[in-house]
Amino acid sequence: MRIPLGNNLQSRDGLLDKECKAVNVLLEPNGDPQSPGLTIRSRPGVTDQGLIRAGTAQLLTPWAGISGIVGDYFFTVGTCGGAITSGSNGDLTALSPDSVAIPENGRGLAIHPNGNFAYCSNVNSGTNANPEISMYSINASGQLALLSPASIAMSASAAPAIVLISPDGLFAYCSDVNNNEIKQFSVNTSTGQLTALGTPSYSPASGGIYSASCLSPDGLFFYIDGAIGANKVIYQCARNAGTGLISALGTPSITTGAAGGFGALVISADGTSVYGCSYSDDKIYQFSRNTSTGLLTALGSPTVNTGSYPFGMCISPDGLNVYTSNNVSDTLSQFSRNTSTGALTALSPATIAVDAKKAIPVI
Known about the structure:
Distance between the termini: 17 Å
Structural class: mainly beta
Strand order of the largest sheet: 2-3-4-5
Number of helices: 0
Mean pLDDT: 79
Protein backbone atom coordinates (compact mmCIF):
# COMPACT_ATOMS: atom_id res chain seq x y z
CA MET A 1 0.00 0.00 0.00
CA ARG A 2 1.08 3.64 -0.40
CA ILE A 3 0.93 6.07 2.48
CA PRO A 4 -0.05 9.45 0.99
CA LEU A 5 2.32 11.75 2.86
CA GLY A 6 3.73 14.98 1.53
CA ASN A 7 6.93 14.05 3.28
CA ASN A 8 7.19 11.24 0.83
CA LEU A 9 6.90 8.12 2.92
CA GLN A 10 5.98 5.17 0.71
CA SER A 11 5.40 1.75 2.21
CA ARG A 12 4.32 -1.67 1.04
CA ASP A 13 2.81 -2.95 4.27
CA GLY A 14 4.09 -0.77 7.06
CA LEU A 15 0.60 0.43 8.03
CA LEU A 16 -1.70 -2.49 7.35
CA ASP A 17 -2.33 -2.60 11.09
CA LYS A 18 -4.58 0.36 11.78
CA GLU A 19 -3.37 1.30 15.25
CA CYS A 20 -0.66 3.85 15.71
CA LYS A 21 1.16 2.71 18.83
CA ALA A 22 4.26 4.88 19.14
CA VAL A 23 6.20 7.92 18.18
CA ASN A 24 9.97 7.78 18.18
CA VAL A 25 12.09 10.74 17.15
CA LEU A 26 14.69 10.96 14.44
CA LEU A 27 17.19 13.62 15.48
CA GLU A 28 19.06 16.04 13.23
CA PRO A 29 21.79 17.69 15.29
CA ASN A 30 23.40 19.67 12.48
CA GLY A 31 20.85 22.47 12.94
CA ASP A 32 20.09 22.77 9.22
CA PRO A 33 16.41 21.98 8.51
CA GLN A 34 16.84 20.88 4.91
CA SER A 35 14.48 18.20 3.59
CA PRO A 36 13.42 16.54 6.85
CA GLY A 37 10.80 13.81 6.51
CA LEU A 38 8.39 11.76 8.56
CA THR A 39 7.99 8.02 8.78
CA ILE A 40 4.93 6.21 10.12
CA ARG A 41 5.18 2.79 11.70
CA SER A 42 3.25 0.97 14.42
CA ARG A 43 5.22 0.37 17.61
CA PRO A 44 4.43 0.42 21.36
CA GLY A 45 4.55 3.89 22.89
CA VAL A 46 1.60 6.20 22.10
CA THR A 47 -1.51 6.35 24.26
CA ASP A 48 -4.97 5.59 22.91
CA GLN A 49 -5.73 9.31 22.89
CA GLY A 50 -2.84 10.03 20.52
CA LEU A 51 -0.69 11.69 23.19
CA ILE A 52 3.03 11.21 22.74
CA ARG A 53 4.75 10.16 25.93
CA ALA A 54 7.96 11.94 26.81
CA GLY A 55 11.21 10.04 26.76
CA THR A 56 10.75 8.24 23.44
CA ALA A 57 13.50 10.17 21.65
CA GLN A 58 16.41 8.21 20.28
CA LEU A 59 19.34 9.16 18.09
CA LEU A 60 19.11 7.19 14.86
CA THR A 61 21.45 8.94 12.45
CA PRO A 62 23.34 12.25 12.53
CA TRP A 63 22.05 13.36 9.13
CA ALA A 64 18.32 12.78 9.10
CA GLY A 65 16.42 13.03 5.85
CA ILE A 66 13.47 11.64 3.96
CA SER A 67 12.51 8.20 5.22
CA GLY A 68 10.54 5.12 4.22
CA ILE A 69 9.56 1.65 5.39
CA VAL A 70 9.30 -1.71 3.67
CA GLY A 71 7.88 -4.39 5.94
CA ASP A 72 10.32 -4.65 8.84
CA TYR A 73 12.97 -2.36 7.37
CA PHE A 74 13.45 1.37 7.78
CA PHE A 75 15.40 3.66 5.42
CA THR A 76 16.47 7.28 5.73
CA VAL A 77 18.37 9.53 3.33
CA GLY A 78 21.17 11.70 4.66
CA THR A 79 20.63 15.13 3.15
CA CYS A 80 24.23 16.06 3.82
CA GLY A 81 25.88 12.72 4.42
CA GLY A 82 25.38 11.30 0.95
CA ALA A 83 24.12 7.87 2.06
CA ILE A 84 20.96 5.86 2.54
CA THR A 85 21.01 4.38 6.03
CA SER A 86 18.97 1.28 6.82
CA GLY A 87 17.94 -0.63 9.93
CA SER A 88 15.52 -3.29 11.01
CA ASN A 89 12.21 -2.04 12.35
CA GLY A 90 11.17 -1.84 16.00
CA ASP A 91 14.35 -0.85 17.86
CA LEU A 92 15.93 0.15 14.53
CA THR A 93 18.97 -2.08 14.78
CA ALA A 94 21.47 -1.17 12.07
CA LEU A 95 21.82 -3.63 9.22
CA SER A 96 25.23 -4.75 8.00
CA PRO A 97 26.22 -2.88 5.94
CA ASP A 98 24.09 -0.12 7.38
CA SER A 99 24.19 2.26 4.40
CA VAL A 100 24.72 2.63 0.68
CA ALA A 101 26.34 5.64 -0.93
CA ILE A 102 24.43 8.07 -3.10
CA PRO A 103 26.33 10.18 -5.66
CA GLU A 104 25.51 13.59 -4.21
CA ASN A 105 23.32 15.07 -1.44
CA GLY A 106 20.02 13.25 -0.99
CA ARG A 107 16.82 15.24 -1.33
CA GLY A 108 13.99 12.70 -1.48
CA LEU A 109 13.33 9.00 -1.02
CA ALA A 110 10.43 6.93 -2.38
CA ILE A 111 9.80 3.22 -1.91
CA HIS A 112 7.92 1.43 -4.69
CA PRO A 113 4.53 0.04 -3.58
CA ASN A 114 5.76 -3.50 -4.34
CA GLY A 115 8.58 -2.99 -1.82
CA ASN A 116 11.27 -4.09 -4.29
CA PHE A 117 12.72 -0.73 -5.36
CA ALA A 118 13.84 2.60 -3.87
CA TYR A 119 14.42 5.93 -5.60
CA CYS A 120 16.56 8.75 -4.23
CA SER A 121 16.72 12.23 -5.76
CA ASN A 122 20.10 13.86 -5.26
CA VAL A 123 22.13 16.86 -6.34
CA ASN A 124 25.34 18.56 -5.22
CA SER A 125 24.04 21.09 -2.70
CA GLY A 126 27.06 23.37 -3.15
CA THR A 127 27.19 23.62 -6.93
CA ASN A 128 23.75 22.25 -7.90
CA ALA A 129 25.62 19.86 -10.20
CA ASN A 130 24.71 16.32 -11.23
CA PRO A 131 20.96 16.30 -10.52
CA GLU A 132 19.56 12.79 -10.88
CA ILE A 133 17.41 10.07 -9.37
CA SER A 134 19.38 7.06 -8.18
CA MET A 135 17.59 3.70 -8.42
CA TYR A 136 18.01 0.72 -6.07
CA SER A 137 16.66 -2.77 -5.61
CA ILE A 138 15.66 -3.93 -2.11
CA ASN A 139 16.17 -7.57 -1.24
CA ALA A 140 14.32 -9.69 1.33
CA SER A 141 16.91 -8.75 3.98
CA GLY A 142 16.35 -5.03 3.48
CA GLN A 143 19.66 -4.46 1.65
CA LEU A 144 19.85 -1.90 -1.15
CA ALA A 145 21.78 -2.36 -4.39
CA LEU A 146 22.09 -0.01 -7.35
CA LEU A 147 20.20 -1.00 -10.46
CA SER A 148 21.89 -1.03 -13.85
CA PRO A 149 21.77 1.65 -15.12
CA ALA A 150 22.03 3.12 -11.65
CA SER A 151 20.33 6.47 -12.21
CA ILE A 152 18.32 8.64 -14.51
CA ALA A 153 19.80 12.07 -15.14
CA MET A 154 17.81 15.30 -14.98
CA SER A 155 18.52 18.55 -16.80
CA ALA A 156 21.64 20.40 -15.65
CA SER A 157 19.56 23.22 -14.18
CA ALA A 158 17.27 20.92 -12.18
CA ALA A 159 16.91 20.99 -8.39
CA PRO A 160 15.22 17.65 -7.66
CA ALA A 161 13.37 17.27 -4.37
CA ILE A 162 10.36 15.17 -3.36
CA VAL A 163 9.85 11.87 -5.23
CA LEU A 164 6.39 10.28 -5.39
CA ILE A 165 5.26 6.94 -6.82
CA SER A 166 1.68 6.45 -8.00
CA PRO A 167 -0.36 3.96 -5.93
CA ASP A 168 -0.39 1.47 -8.84
CA GLY A 169 3.41 1.70 -9.06
CA LEU A 170 3.40 2.53 -12.76
CA PHE A 171 4.54 6.15 -12.62
CA ALA A 172 6.97 8.33 -10.67
CA TYR A 173 7.18 12.08 -10.13
CA CYS A 174 9.92 14.41 -8.89
CA SER A 175 9.54 18.10 -8.08
CA ASP A 176 12.11 20.39 -9.73
CA VAL A 177 12.02 23.68 -7.85
CA ASN A 178 14.52 25.50 -10.09
CA ASN A 179 12.49 24.93 -13.24
CA ASN A 180 9.04 25.03 -11.62
CA GLU A 181 8.25 21.56 -12.94
CA ILE A 182 7.09 18.15 -11.86
CA LYS A 183 9.16 15.59 -13.77
CA GLN A 184 7.09 12.63 -14.98
CA PHE A 185 8.36 9.05 -15.44
CA SER A 186 7.03 5.61 -16.17
CA VAL A 187 8.20 2.76 -13.93
CA ASN A 188 9.06 -0.73 -15.15
CA THR A 189 7.61 -2.74 -12.27
CA SER A 190 9.79 -5.75 -13.13
CA THR A 191 13.16 -4.02 -13.37
CA GLY A 192 12.46 -0.84 -11.39
CA GLN A 193 13.87 1.38 -14.14
CA LEU A 194 12.45 4.87 -14.68
CA THR A 195 11.85 6.32 -18.16
CA ALA A 196 10.85 9.93 -18.87
CA LEU A 197 7.35 10.18 -20.30
CA GLY A 198 6.81 11.61 -23.79
CA THR A 199 5.62 14.73 -22.00
CA PRO A 200 8.51 14.79 -19.52
CA SER A 201 7.23 17.44 -17.13
CA TYR A 202 4.25 19.43 -15.92
CA SER A 203 4.43 23.14 -15.10
CA PRO A 204 1.68 25.36 -13.71
CA ALA A 205 0.46 27.97 -16.19
CA SER A 206 1.57 30.73 -13.85
CA GLY A 207 3.65 31.03 -10.71
CA GLY A 208 6.27 28.72 -9.28
CA ILE A 209 6.41 25.57 -7.21
CA TYR A 210 7.97 24.63 -3.89
CA SER A 211 9.10 21.13 -3.02
CA ALA A 212 6.08 19.82 -1.04
CA SER A 213 3.54 17.76 -2.98
CA CYS A 214 1.22 14.81 -2.48
CA LEU A 215 -0.95 12.36 -4.40
CA SER A 216 -4.53 11.44 -3.48
CA PRO A 217 -5.00 7.89 -2.15
CA ASP A 218 -6.73 6.85 -5.38
CA GLY A 219 -3.92 8.36 -7.45
CA LEU A 220 -6.27 10.52 -9.52
CA PHE A 221 -5.27 13.92 -8.13
CA PHE A 222 -1.96 15.67 -7.49
CA TYR A 223 -1.33 18.66 -5.21
CA ILE A 224 1.71 20.96 -5.33
CA ASP A 225 2.77 23.70 -2.95
CA GLY A 226 3.66 26.93 -4.73
CA ALA A 227 3.18 30.66 -5.20
CA ILE A 228 1.61 33.00 -7.75
CA GLY A 229 3.20 36.37 -7.16
CA ALA A 230 2.93 37.14 -3.45
CA ASN A 231 0.09 34.66 -2.93
CA LYS A 232 0.94 31.22 -1.61
CA VAL A 233 -1.15 28.54 -3.29
CA ILE A 234 -1.75 24.83 -3.65
CA TYR A 235 -1.91 23.82 -7.31
CA GLN A 236 -4.77 21.38 -7.91
CA CYS A 237 -4.14 18.84 -10.65
CA ALA A 238 -5.76 15.77 -12.17
CA ARG A 239 -3.65 12.70 -12.95
CA ASN A 240 -4.49 10.41 -15.86
CA ALA A 241 -4.15 6.90 -14.42
CA GLY A 242 -3.56 5.44 -17.89
CA THR A 243 -0.89 7.82 -19.19
CA GLY A 244 0.40 9.13 -15.86
CA LEU A 245 0.23 12.72 -17.10
CA ILE A 246 -0.64 15.57 -14.75
CA SER A 247 -2.94 18.41 -15.86
CA ALA A 248 -4.51 21.40 -14.13
CA LEU A 249 -8.04 21.16 -12.82
CA GLY A 250 -10.63 23.72 -13.95
CA THR A 251 -9.84 25.59 -10.76
CA PRO A 252 -6.07 25.27 -11.01
CA SER A 253 -5.11 26.57 -7.57
CA ILE A 254 -6.37 27.62 -4.16
CA THR A 255 -4.82 30.49 -2.21
CA THR A 256 -3.67 29.28 1.18
CA GLY A 257 -3.00 32.53 3.03
CA ALA A 258 0.28 31.11 4.34
CA ALA A 259 3.22 33.42 4.88
CA GLY A 260 5.58 31.06 3.04
CA GLY A 261 5.98 27.60 1.62
CA PHE A 262 4.94 24.40 3.35
CA GLY A 263 7.49 22.12 4.91
CA ALA A 264 5.08 19.27 4.23
CA LEU A 265 1.81 18.71 2.41
CA VAL A 266 -0.15 15.65 3.53
CA ILE A 267 -3.49 14.06 2.74
CA SER A 268 -5.57 11.82 4.99
CA ALA A 269 -5.97 8.15 4.08
CA ASP A 270 -9.70 8.66 3.49
CA GLY A 271 -8.86 11.46 1.04
CA THR A 272 -11.13 14.02 2.70
CA SER A 273 -8.52 16.31 4.26
CA VAL A 274 -5.31 18.04 3.19
CA TYR A 275 -2.91 19.78 5.57
CA GLY A 276 0.12 21.99 4.99
CA CYS A 277 2.52 22.98 7.76
CA SER A 278 3.91 26.47 7.26
CA TYR A 279 7.33 27.13 8.78
CA SER A 280 7.05 30.86 8.04
CA ASP A 281 4.14 31.49 10.41
CA ASP A 282 4.09 28.34 12.59
CA LYS A 283 0.69 27.04 11.56
CA ILE A 284 -1.04 24.06 9.97
CA TYR A 285 -3.38 25.13 7.17
CA GLN A 286 -6.47 22.90 6.96
CA PHE A 287 -8.50 22.03 3.88
CA SER A 288 -11.42 19.77 3.16
CA ARG A 289 -11.25 17.86 -0.11
CA ASN A 290 -14.01 16.82 -2.51
CA THR A 291 -13.04 13.24 -3.31
CA SER A 292 -14.96 13.34 -6.61
CA THR A 293 -13.68 16.62 -8.06
CA GLY A 294 -10.39 16.82 -6.18
CA LEU A 295 -11.01 20.46 -5.26
CA LEU A 296 -9.87 21.84 -1.90
CA THR A 297 -11.75 24.23 0.40
CA ALA A 298 -10.26 26.00 3.42
CA LEU A 299 -11.96 25.02 6.66
CA GLY A 300 -13.99 27.64 8.53
CA SER A 301 -11.17 27.77 11.07
CA PRO A 302 -8.38 27.59 8.50
CA THR A 303 -5.35 27.19 10.78
CA VAL A 304 -4.08 25.79 14.06
CA ASN A 305 -0.89 26.88 15.76
CA THR A 306 2.20 24.70 16.08
CA GLY A 307 5.58 25.10 17.69
CA SER A 308 8.24 27.19 16.00
CA TYR A 309 9.23 26.25 12.41
CA PRO A 310 7.14 23.13 11.67
CA PHE A 311 8.93 21.36 8.85
CA GLY A 312 7.61 17.81 9.05
CA MET A 313 4.13 16.38 9.51
CA CYS A 314 2.32 13.05 9.57
CA ILE A 315 -1.15 11.63 10.13
CA SER A 316 -1.70 8.55 12.28
CA PRO A 317 -2.83 5.41 10.42
CA ASP A 318 -6.32 5.57 11.94
CA GLY A 319 -6.67 9.23 10.89
CA LEU A 320 -7.36 10.40 14.44
CA ASN A 321 -4.17 12.36 15.11
CA VAL A 322 -1.74 14.71 13.36
CA TYR A 323 1.82 15.50 14.47
CA THR A 324 4.37 18.12 13.42
CA SER A 325 8.10 18.38 14.14
CA ASN A 326 9.04 21.94 15.08
CA ASN A 327 12.65 22.54 14.22
CA VAL A 328 13.35 25.77 16.09
CA SER A 329 11.39 25.20 19.31
CA ASP A 330 12.68 21.60 19.52
CA THR A 331 9.18 20.25 20.07
CA LEU A 332 6.57 17.94 18.58
CA SER A 333 3.04 19.34 18.30
CA GLN A 334 0.14 16.88 18.61
CA PHE A 335 -3.48 17.21 17.55
CA SER A 336 -6.67 15.21 17.48
CA ARG A 337 -8.45 15.10 14.12
CA ASN A 338 -12.21 15.20 13.62
CA THR A 339 -12.68 12.55 10.93
CA SER A 340 -16.00 14.11 9.84
CA THR A 341 -14.82 17.71 9.39
CA GLY A 342 -11.04 17.31 9.24
CA ALA A 343 -10.61 20.01 11.90
CA LEU A 344 -7.61 19.67 14.20
CA THR A 345 -7.62 20.36 17.95
CA ALA A 346 -4.50 20.62 20.07
CA LEU A 347 -4.13 17.82 22.58
CA SER A 348 -3.09 18.41 26.17
CA PRO A 349 -0.18 18.78 26.37
CA ALA A 350 -0.07 20.45 22.97
CA THR A 351 3.67 19.87 22.57
CA ILE A 352 6.44 17.77 24.00
CA ALA A 353 10.12 18.65 24.10
CA VAL A 354 12.74 16.61 22.28
CA ASP A 355 16.40 16.34 23.14
CA ALA A 356 18.07 17.67 20.01
CA LYS A 357 18.54 20.74 17.88
CA LYS A 358 16.34 19.34 15.10
CA ALA A 359 13.87 16.48 15.25
CA ILE A 360 11.69 14.44 12.96
CA PRO A 361 8.88 12.30 14.39
CA VAL A 362 8.76 8.62 13.48
CA ILE A 363 5.50 6.86 14.31
